[in-house]
User: Fold this.
Amino acid sequence: MKRLTLCVLFLLMLAPAAMAARTSLKAITADPYVSALMIDAASGKVLFEENADAPVYPASVLKLMNLYVILERIEQGALKLDEMVQVTAEAAKTGGSQVYLDPKEQFSVEDLLYALMVQSANDAAVALATHIAGSKEGFIALMNQKAQQLGMKNSSFHSVHGLPPSEGQQPDVTTARDLAILCRELAKRPEALKYTSTQTRGFRDDKFIMRTHNKLLTRVPGCDGFKTGFYNAAGFSIAATAQRAGVRIIALVMGSKDRKVRDAKAAELLAKGFILVPPQLQPPSAAAAAQPVAAQQQSAAVAVNAPAVQPAPDAAAPAPPDAQPGPAMGPLAKMRDSGWGKIFIGIGIGFLLCLVIFAVAGMRRKNRSGSLRSRF
Assistant:
Protein backbone atom coordinates (compact mmCIF):
# COMPACT_ATOMS: atom_id res chain seq x y z
CA MET A 1 0.00 0.00 0.00
CA LYS A 2 2.84 2.34 0.86
CA ARG A 3 4.49 1.60 -2.49
CA LEU A 4 1.30 2.40 -4.36
CA THR A 5 0.91 5.67 -2.47
CA LEU A 6 4.50 6.63 -3.20
CA CYS A 7 4.05 5.88 -6.90
CA VAL A 8 0.94 8.05 -7.09
CA LEU A 9 2.69 10.92 -5.33
CA PHE A 10 5.66 10.56 -7.63
CA LEU A 11 3.44 10.75 -10.71
CA LEU A 12 1.63 13.79 -9.34
CA MET A 13 4.95 15.49 -8.84
CA LEU A 14 5.99 14.71 -12.39
CA ALA A 15 2.73 15.91 -13.92
CA PRO A 16 3.40 19.65 -13.64
CA ALA A 17 6.87 19.16 -15.08
CA ALA A 18 5.46 17.17 -17.98
CA MET A 19 2.82 19.82 -18.62
CA ALA A 20 5.45 22.53 -18.53
CA ALA A 21 7.54 20.59 -21.08
CA ARG A 22 4.80 21.02 -23.68
CA THR A 23 4.37 24.18 -25.72
CA SER A 24 1.09 25.93 -25.07
CA LEU A 25 -0.99 25.69 -28.23
CA LYS A 26 -4.03 27.58 -29.34
CA ALA A 27 -6.72 25.01 -30.01
CA ILE A 28 -7.85 24.61 -33.61
CA THR A 29 -11.18 22.83 -33.22
CA ALA A 30 -14.79 23.45 -34.20
CA ASP A 31 -18.20 21.83 -34.27
CA PRO A 32 -18.74 19.84 -36.46
CA TYR A 33 -15.19 20.39 -37.80
CA VAL A 34 -12.64 22.99 -38.80
CA SER A 35 -12.33 21.75 -42.38
CA ALA A 36 -13.52 18.96 -44.64
CA LEU A 37 -12.76 17.76 -48.14
CA MET A 38 -13.94 14.91 -50.36
CA ILE A 39 -12.37 13.83 -53.65
CA ASP A 40 -12.66 11.14 -56.30
CA ALA A 41 -9.38 9.23 -55.93
CA ALA A 42 -9.15 8.30 -59.61
CA SER A 43 -9.44 11.82 -61.06
CA GLY A 44 -8.61 13.95 -58.03
CA LYS A 45 -11.82 15.89 -58.64
CA VAL A 46 -13.10 17.74 -55.58
CA LEU A 47 -16.63 16.60 -54.78
CA PHE A 48 -17.05 18.64 -51.59
CA GLU A 49 -14.94 21.11 -49.64
CA GLU A 50 -15.30 23.44 -46.69
CA ASN A 51 -12.33 25.47 -45.45
CA ALA A 52 -10.07 22.90 -47.12
CA ASP A 53 -7.05 25.25 -46.95
CA ALA A 54 -7.44 26.14 -43.26
CA PRO A 55 -4.33 25.28 -41.18
CA VAL A 56 -4.89 22.36 -38.79
CA TYR A 57 -2.82 20.14 -36.52
CA PRO A 58 -2.78 16.65 -38.07
CA ALA A 59 -1.92 14.80 -34.84
CA SER A 60 -1.44 11.08 -35.66
CA VAL A 61 -2.84 11.47 -39.18
CA LEU A 62 0.71 12.69 -39.82
CA LYS A 63 1.86 9.04 -39.62
CA LEU A 64 0.54 8.60 -43.16
CA MET A 65 3.58 10.54 -44.31
CA ASN A 66 5.80 8.14 -42.34
CA LEU A 67 4.13 5.27 -44.18
CA TYR A 68 4.61 6.90 -47.57
CA VAL A 69 8.31 7.62 -47.02
CA ILE A 70 8.97 4.10 -45.74
CA LEU A 71 7.10 2.35 -48.56
CA GLU A 72 8.93 4.42 -51.13
CA ARG A 73 12.29 3.39 -49.67
CA ILE A 74 11.19 -0.25 -49.78
CA GLU A 75 10.25 0.17 -53.46
CA GLN A 76 13.67 1.66 -54.14
CA GLY A 77 15.39 -1.30 -52.49
CA ALA A 78 16.93 0.83 -49.72
CA LEU A 79 14.89 -0.94 -47.04
CA LYS A 80 13.42 -4.43 -46.56
CA LEU A 81 10.30 -5.50 -44.72
CA ASP A 82 12.15 -8.28 -42.92
CA GLU A 83 14.99 -5.97 -41.89
CA MET A 84 15.41 -5.91 -38.11
CA VAL A 85 15.13 -2.62 -36.22
CA GLN A 86 16.90 -2.18 -32.90
CA VAL A 87 14.77 -0.28 -30.39
CA THR A 88 16.54 2.79 -29.00
CA ALA A 89 16.21 4.27 -25.52
CA GLU A 90 14.71 7.38 -27.09
CA ALA A 91 12.01 5.33 -28.82
CA ALA A 92 11.20 3.45 -25.62
CA LYS A 93 10.63 6.72 -23.74
CA THR A 94 8.10 8.08 -26.24
CA GLY A 95 4.68 8.56 -24.66
CA GLY A 96 1.13 8.53 -25.92
CA SER A 97 -0.19 5.56 -27.87
CA GLN A 98 2.50 2.87 -27.97
CA VAL A 99 3.41 -0.81 -28.03
CA TYR A 100 5.77 -0.37 -25.06
CA LEU A 101 9.04 -1.01 -26.83
CA ASP A 102 12.11 -1.92 -24.80
CA PRO A 103 15.72 -1.07 -25.76
CA LYS A 104 16.55 -4.77 -25.46
CA GLU A 105 14.11 -5.66 -28.24
CA GLN A 106 14.34 -5.94 -32.01
CA PHE A 107 11.45 -6.02 -34.45
CA SER A 108 11.14 -6.25 -38.21
CA VAL A 109 10.24 -3.22 -40.29
CA GLU A 110 6.92 -4.86 -41.16
CA ASP A 111 6.00 -5.50 -37.51
CA LEU A 112 6.69 -1.87 -36.68
CA LEU A 113 4.70 -0.68 -39.70
CA TYR A 114 1.66 -2.54 -38.39
CA ALA A 115 2.29 -1.01 -34.96
CA LEU A 116 2.53 2.42 -36.59
CA MET A 117 -0.75 2.15 -38.50
CA VAL A 118 -2.93 -0.14 -36.35
CA GLN A 119 -1.94 0.89 -32.83
CA SER A 120 -0.73 4.36 -33.93
CA ALA A 121 2.35 3.60 -31.84
CA ASN A 122 4.52 6.66 -31.28
CA ASP A 123 7.43 4.56 -30.03
CA ALA A 124 7.31 2.53 -33.26
CA ALA A 125 7.43 5.80 -35.25
CA VAL A 126 10.59 6.90 -33.45
CA ALA A 127 12.22 3.47 -33.80
CA LEU A 128 11.57 3.37 -37.56
CA ALA A 129 12.65 6.97 -38.10
CA THR A 130 15.92 6.46 -36.25
CA HIS A 131 16.67 3.23 -38.08
CA ILE A 132 16.04 4.75 -41.51
CA ALA A 133 17.48 8.25 -41.19
CA GLY A 134 19.78 7.95 -38.17
CA SER A 135 17.70 10.37 -36.10
CA LYS A 136 14.21 11.83 -35.75
CA GLU A 137 15.46 15.08 -37.26
CA GLY A 138 16.82 13.29 -40.30
CA PHE A 139 13.52 11.53 -40.91
CA ILE A 140 11.56 14.77 -40.42
CA ALA A 141 13.68 16.27 -43.19
CA LEU A 142 12.67 13.37 -45.45
CA MET A 143 9.00 13.96 -44.58
CA ASN A 144 9.14 17.65 -45.47
CA GLN A 145 11.10 16.97 -48.63
CA LYS A 146 8.51 14.47 -49.79
CA ALA A 147 5.66 16.84 -48.90
CA GLN A 148 7.13 19.51 -51.15
CA GLN A 149 7.65 17.03 -53.98
CA LEU A 150 4.01 15.98 -53.78
CA GLY A 151 2.82 19.59 -53.84
CA MET A 152 1.74 19.79 -50.18
CA LYS A 153 2.62 23.48 -50.09
CA ASN A 154 0.91 24.32 -46.80
CA SER A 155 2.34 21.48 -44.72
CA SER A 156 5.21 21.65 -42.26
CA PHE A 157 6.23 18.67 -40.14
CA HIS A 158 8.26 18.93 -36.94
CA SER A 159 7.75 15.46 -35.44
CA VAL A 160 7.63 11.83 -36.56
CA HIS A 161 4.57 10.95 -34.46
CA GLY A 162 2.19 13.93 -34.39
CA LEU A 163 2.24 14.46 -30.62
CA PRO A 164 1.85 17.99 -29.24
CA PRO A 165 5.16 19.86 -29.55
CA SER A 166 7.63 19.89 -26.71
CA GLU A 167 8.82 23.18 -25.24
CA GLY A 168 10.67 25.20 -27.85
CA GLN A 169 9.35 23.12 -30.76
CA GLN A 170 6.87 24.05 -33.47
CA PRO A 171 3.63 22.10 -34.02
CA ASP A 172 3.00 20.00 -37.10
CA VAL A 173 0.71 21.92 -39.47
CA THR A 174 -1.12 20.85 -42.61
CA THR A 175 -4.44 21.30 -44.43
CA ALA A 176 -7.21 19.00 -45.57
CA ARG A 177 -6.27 19.70 -49.19
CA ASP A 178 -2.63 18.76 -48.62
CA LEU A 179 -3.59 15.55 -46.84
CA ALA A 180 -5.88 14.64 -49.74
CA ILE A 181 -2.84 14.77 -52.04
CA LEU A 182 -0.96 12.39 -49.74
CA CYS A 183 -3.96 10.06 -49.38
CA ARG A 184 -4.45 9.89 -53.12
CA GLU A 185 -0.84 8.77 -53.55
CA LEU A 186 -1.20 6.13 -50.84
CA ALA A 187 -4.42 4.84 -52.42
CA LYS A 188 -2.39 3.90 -55.50
CA ARG A 189 -0.38 1.46 -53.38
CA PRO A 190 -2.13 -1.79 -52.38
CA GLU A 191 0.63 -2.42 -49.83
CA ALA A 192 -0.31 0.80 -48.02
CA LEU A 193 -3.96 -0.26 -47.78
CA LYS A 194 -2.81 -3.61 -46.37
CA TYR A 195 -1.66 -1.80 -43.24
CA THR A 196 -4.40 0.83 -43.01
CA SER A 197 -7.20 -1.73 -43.41
CA THR A 198 -6.00 -4.03 -40.61
CA GLN A 199 -8.37 -3.93 -37.63
CA THR A 200 -6.53 -6.10 -35.11
CA ARG A 201 -3.09 -7.70 -35.07
CA GLY A 202 -0.90 -9.41 -32.54
CA PHE A 203 2.43 -7.90 -31.55
CA ARG A 204 5.33 -9.39 -29.63
CA ASP A 205 4.27 -12.98 -30.38
CA ASP A 206 0.62 -12.02 -29.85
CA LYS A 207 1.26 -11.05 -26.23
CA PHE A 208 0.02 -7.57 -27.11
CA ILE A 209 -3.08 -7.25 -29.30
CA MET A 210 -3.22 -4.04 -31.33
CA ARG A 211 -6.59 -2.55 -32.31
CA THR A 212 -7.22 0.17 -34.85
CA HIS A 213 -8.67 3.53 -33.84
CA ASN A 214 -10.46 3.82 -37.21
CA LYS A 215 -14.00 2.65 -36.43
CA LEU A 216 -15.12 3.27 -40.02
CA LEU A 217 -13.37 0.07 -41.09
CA THR A 218 -16.28 -1.87 -39.59
CA ARG A 219 -19.05 0.66 -40.14
CA VAL A 220 -18.61 1.82 -43.74
CA PRO A 221 -18.82 -0.80 -46.53
CA GLY A 222 -15.62 -0.89 -48.57
CA CYS A 223 -13.62 1.20 -46.10
CA ASP A 224 -9.93 0.22 -46.04
CA GLY A 225 -8.13 3.25 -44.64
CA PHE A 226 -6.56 5.48 -43.65
CA LYS A 227 -5.81 7.03 -40.24
CA THR A 228 -7.24 8.92 -37.27
CA GLY A 229 -5.60 11.52 -35.04
CA PHE A 230 -6.27 13.38 -31.81
CA TYR A 231 -4.90 15.58 -29.09
CA ASN A 232 -6.72 18.32 -27.23
CA ALA A 233 -5.57 21.35 -29.23
CA ALA A 234 -5.88 19.48 -32.53
CA GLY A 235 -9.29 17.96 -31.94
CA PHE A 236 -10.40 14.76 -33.67
CA SER A 237 -9.33 14.26 -37.29
CA ILE A 238 -9.58 11.47 -39.83
CA ALA A 239 -8.40 10.66 -43.32
CA ALA A 240 -10.79 7.99 -44.62
CA THR A 241 -11.25 6.10 -47.85
CA ALA A 242 -13.57 3.43 -49.24
CA GLN A 243 -13.93 1.63 -52.56
CA ARG A 244 -17.09 0.26 -54.18
CA ALA A 245 -17.92 -0.82 -57.75
CA GLY A 246 -14.61 0.45 -59.11
CA VAL A 247 -14.94 3.86 -57.42
CA ARG A 248 -12.68 5.07 -54.60
CA ILE A 249 -13.64 8.07 -52.50
CA ILE A 250 -11.31 9.90 -50.10
CA ALA A 251 -12.69 12.08 -47.29
CA LEU A 252 -10.91 14.34 -44.81
CA VAL A 253 -12.54 15.68 -41.65
CA MET A 254 -10.20 17.81 -39.54
CA GLY A 255 -10.40 19.43 -36.10
CA SER A 256 -13.72 18.13 -34.84
CA LYS A 257 -14.52 18.63 -31.16
CA ASP A 258 -16.18 15.24 -30.89
CA ARG A 259 -14.97 11.85 -32.08
CA LYS A 260 -18.44 10.54 -32.91
CA VAL A 261 -19.26 13.67 -34.90
CA ARG A 262 -15.99 13.30 -36.81
CA ASP A 263 -16.75 9.70 -37.71
CA ALA A 264 -20.34 10.47 -38.65
CA LYS A 265 -19.31 13.32 -40.95
CA ALA A 266 -16.62 11.22 -42.61
CA ALA A 267 -19.09 8.37 -43.19
CA GLU A 268 -21.61 10.87 -44.58
CA LEU A 269 -19.07 12.29 -47.03
CA LEU A 270 -18.08 8.85 -48.26
CA ALA A 271 -21.73 7.92 -48.83
CA LYS A 272 -22.35 11.13 -50.78
CA GLY A 273 -19.26 10.50 -52.85
CA PHE A 274 -20.56 7.18 -54.11
CA ILE A 275 -23.80 8.90 -55.11
CA LEU A 276 -21.96 11.62 -57.04
CA VAL A 277 -19.57 9.26 -58.86
CA PRO A 278 -21.30 6.51 -60.88
CA PRO A 279 -20.04 2.93 -60.70
CA GLN A 280 -17.19 2.24 -63.09
CA LEU A 281 -17.30 -0.64 -65.57
CA GLN A 282 -14.26 -2.72 -66.39
CA PRO A 283 -11.63 -0.38 -67.90
CA PRO A 284 -11.63 -0.60 -71.73
CA SER A 285 -7.91 -1.40 -71.83
CA ALA A 286 -8.36 -4.32 -69.44
CA ALA A 287 -11.34 -5.63 -71.37
CA ALA A 288 -9.43 -5.42 -74.65
CA ALA A 289 -6.53 -7.37 -73.21
CA ALA A 290 -8.86 -10.07 -71.90
CA GLN A 291 -10.91 -10.62 -75.11
CA PRO A 292 -9.91 -11.61 -78.69
CA VAL A 293 -10.41 -9.09 -81.47
CA ALA A 294 -13.52 -10.84 -82.84
CA ALA A 295 -15.14 -10.82 -79.41
CA GLN A 296 -14.32 -7.13 -78.97
CA GLN A 297 -16.07 -6.28 -82.25
CA GLN A 298 -19.14 -8.32 -81.30
CA SER A 299 -19.43 -6.73 -77.85
CA ALA A 300 -18.59 -3.13 -78.80
CA ALA A 301 -22.23 -2.26 -79.43
CA VAL A 302 -23.36 -3.32 -75.96
CA ALA A 303 -20.30 -2.50 -73.86
CA VAL A 304 -21.74 0.79 -72.62
CA ASN A 305 -24.94 -0.68 -71.23
CA ALA A 306 -23.78 -4.10 -70.05
CA PRO A 307 -21.00 -5.38 -67.79
CA ALA A 308 -18.04 -7.10 -69.34
CA VAL A 309 -18.85 -10.75 -69.98
CA GLN A 310 -16.40 -13.38 -71.15
CA PRO A 311 -17.49 -14.77 -74.57
CA ALA A 312 -18.17 -18.48 -75.00
CA PRO A 313 -15.15 -20.39 -76.31
CA ASP A 314 -16.77 -21.04 -79.71
CA ALA A 315 -17.94 -17.45 -80.11
CA ALA A 316 -14.42 -16.11 -79.73
CA ALA A 317 -13.04 -18.13 -82.69
CA PRO A 318 -13.32 -16.27 -86.02
CA ALA A 319 -15.00 -18.11 -88.93
CA PRO A 320 -12.90 -19.24 -91.96
CA PRO A 321 -12.82 -16.61 -94.73
CA ASP A 322 -14.69 -18.78 -97.26
CA ALA A 323 -17.30 -20.16 -94.85
CA GLN A 324 -20.88 -19.47 -95.94
CA PRO A 325 -24.03 -19.91 -93.86
CA GLY A 326 -26.38 -22.67 -95.03
CA PRO A 327 -27.84 -26.09 -94.19
CA ALA A 328 -25.62 -28.83 -92.89
CA MET A 329 -24.06 -31.16 -95.50
CA GLY A 330 -25.63 -34.62 -95.97
CA PRO A 331 -23.81 -37.91 -96.48
CA LEU A 332 -23.75 -37.62 -100.29
CA ALA A 333 -22.34 -34.13 -100.12
CA LYS A 334 -19.67 -35.24 -97.69
CA MET A 335 -18.85 -38.22 -99.95
CA ARG A 336 -18.65 -35.91 -102.94
CA ASP A 337 -16.07 -33.73 -101.26
CA SER A 338 -13.92 -36.70 -100.25
CA GLY A 339 -11.34 -38.55 -102.47
CA TRP A 340 -13.28 -41.85 -102.43
CA GLY A 341 -16.39 -40.03 -103.60
CA LYS A 342 -14.54 -38.87 -106.72
CA ILE A 343 -13.38 -42.42 -107.46
CA PHE A 344 -16.91 -43.82 -107.16
CA ILE A 345 -18.26 -41.06 -109.39
CA GLY A 346 -15.64 -41.88 -112.00
CA ILE A 347 -16.54 -45.59 -111.91
CA GLY A 348 -20.23 -44.75 -112.21
CA ILE A 349 -19.65 -42.55 -115.22
CA GLY A 350 -17.53 -45.28 -116.86
CA PHE A 351 -20.21 -47.88 -116.18
CA LEU A 352 -22.86 -45.66 -117.79
CA LEU A 353 -20.66 -45.13 -120.83
CA CYS A 354 -20.26 -48.89 -121.18
CA LEU A 355 -24.01 -49.38 -121.03
CA VAL A 356 -24.52 -46.77 -123.73
CA ILE A 357 -21.91 -48.43 -125.95
CA PHE A 358 -23.46 -51.88 -125.49
CA ALA A 359 -26.94 -50.47 -126.20
CA VAL A 360 -25.77 -48.82 -129.40
CA ALA A 361 -23.98 -51.99 -130.51
CA GLY A 362 -27.10 -54.06 -129.79
CA MET A 363 -29.29 -51.76 -131.84
CA ARG A 364 -26.90 -51.98 -134.79
CA ARG A 365 -26.91 -55.78 -134.67
CA LYS A 366 -30.68 -55.82 -134.56
CA ASN A 367 -30.91 -53.55 -137.55
CA ARG A 368 -28.50 -55.73 -139.50
CA SER A 369 -30.44 -58.92 -138.74
CA GLY A 370 -33.69 -57.25 -139.77
CA SER A 371 -32.26 -56.21 -143.10
CA LEU A 372 -31.04 -59.77 -143.82
CA ARG A 373 -34.50 -61.23 -143.14
CA SER A 374 -36.07 -58.71 -145.48
CA ARG A 375 -33.74 -59.81 -148.28
CA PHE A 376 -34.92 -63.37 -148.02
